[in-house]
Amino acid sequence: MAPYVRAGLGAALIAAALAGPLFDPAAARPAEARTPAARVCTATLEVSIGAGVTAVLSLSPSGPAVTFKDGPGRPLTGFGTLDRTRPALPASAGIRAEIRTPYGPAPVLRTKVEGGPDAPYQIQDFPALPRGCARTR
Question: Is the dihedral of CA 69, 74, 79, 85 positive or negative?
Answer without folding.
Answer: positive
